[in-house]
């Protein structure tokens, strides 16, 4: 019998498996380690996809820590060809919320507490989506994010939010410092020394992993509400 990509089972070893998020037809990679304590959905930045090497690096380490991960394309291929969609934060937030709803329909996944990990423009989408689902989303982590693109929603975010920025990414750092002042939830800004926007410097992406892992384990690890 052919496997149905729309109805995923928990991969026994936690290795990412292809899934299709219905009804939108968005392609994703779902990895669920045994005894997962929560699940983190990734929102990639403009020009990226579910295959983002940096997001996959982070996702691999989160699974090692006992957290399930879902990386998926926020847009279909035809939609992504329109550059206007790539920066349409309300649209991207709707897609993230739709993927969260899809997870809630999966019998093996619905009980897992959910968090969002957003990179660059994806961080803005994660913040907006979290603001619209205060009872469902337990935590948000932003890597080199653009929270200014979610400006009108920042005060409505209720879940604990961690902003991670490179110490040499000065423009984005200033934007995150301003956003931190507008957030009214539990919040923290962590600066990775010597890192630029893409965290390409040795050891800097590993620092992102440590900050994100600890944040998610603290806020997702208590089980479903």
Automatic annotation (TrEMBL):
InterPro entries: AB_hydrolase_fold, FrsA_esterase. PANTHER family: DIENELACTONE HYDROLASE DOMAIN-CONTAINING PROTEIN-RELATED. This is Hydrolase.
